[in-house]
TrEMBL record:
Signal peptide: none annotated. It holds the Pfam family NUDIX. The lineage of its organism: Bacteria, Pseudomonadati, Pseudomonadota, Gammaproteobacteria, Thiohalospirales. It comes from Thiohalospira halophila DSM 15071. InterPro entries: NUDIX_hydrolase-like_dom_sf, NUDIX_hydrolase_CS, NUDIX_hydrolase_dom. One of its GO terms (biological process) is nucleoside phosphate metabolic process. One of its GO terms (molecular function) is ADP-sugar diphosphatase activity. Gene3D superfamilies: Nucleoside Triphosphate Pyrophosphohydrolase (3.90.79.10). This is ADP-ribose diphosphatase.
C-alpha cells in the first residue's frame, strides 16, 4: 500500500448549513505538490437502513430528492446525530421514516460515494424482526412506504425512480448476505 500524501495546508473556501468545501495542498511521496478540493465530511456520517420483513420484503420510502428535483424510491436513511451509536441512529431513522423499529440490527458494510472529492461515509444496516413504532421525524412531508420483494430487486433497480447507487448496492449486498445465512 503506498504511503498517503502529506497535507501541507487546508483552507475552507466555502461553507453552508450542510457542506464545507476545503482546498488542500498535498505533497506526494515523489515530491509532487498539487492542489485538490474536497467536500469535507461533517460528523460521523449517515446510516442507510434495509428494513426486511418476515415476508422477505424490504420497506422503501418515496421522498423528494432535491439534487435531481424529483421523487425517488429508496431506502430510509439519515445522519448519525452527535455521539449517537450507529445502530441506535438506524433504529431511530426507520421509526421516523417507515413507522417500524427493529429488534435485530446488523451493520452490513460502509460505503463511500465519489471518495476522490467527497468525504462522507454511509453505514448500511440490515434491520430485522420489525415491529410497529412511529416517532416524529424531520421530513417536510409524510413519506410513502413501499414494500418490495427482496427477490425482485433487479426489477426494482430498473425503475426510473430508483437511481441512488447506495440503495441499489445495499439491496444487492443484503440479498446476498441473507442468501448465505439461509443455506
Amino acid at each position: 500500500m503506498p504511503r498517503k500524501p502529506t497535507i501541507r495546508q487546508t483552507e475552507t473556501v466555502a461553507r453552508s448549513r450542510l457542506f464545507r468545501i476545503e482546498a488542500l495542498e498535498l505533497e506526494f511521496t515523489n515530491g509532487t505538490v498539487t492542489h485538490y478540493e474536497r467536500l469535507a465530511g461533517s460528523g460521523r456520517g449517515a446510516v442507510l437502513i434495509v428494513p426486511v420483513t418476515e415476508a422477505g420484503e424490504v420497506l422503501l420510502v418515496r421522498e423528494y430528492a432535491a439534487g435531481v428535483h424529483r421523487y425517488e424510491l429508496g431506502l430510509p436513511k439519515g445522519r448519525i446525530e452527535g455521539e449517537e451509536p450507529l445502530l441506535e441512529a438506524a433504529n431511530r431513522e426507520i421509526m421516523e421514516e417507515v413507522g417500524f423499529a427493529a429488534n435485530r440490527l446488523e451493520e452490513l458494510t460502509s460505503l463511500t460515494l465519489a471518495p476522490g472529492y467527497l468525504g462522507h461515509t454511509t453505514h448500511v444496516v440490515i434491520a430485522r424482526d420489525l415491529y410497529p413504532r412511529r416517532e416524529p421525524g424531520d421530513e417536510p412531508e409524510e413519506l410513502e412506504v413501499v414494500p418490495w420483494p427482496l427477490a425482485d430487486i433487479g426489477e426494482l433497480a430498473a425503475r426510473p425512480d430508483v437511481t441512488e447507487a447506495r440503495t441499489i448496492a445495499a439491496l444487492y449486498l443484503t440479498r446476498d448476505r441473507l442468501a448465505t445465512e439461509e443455506g
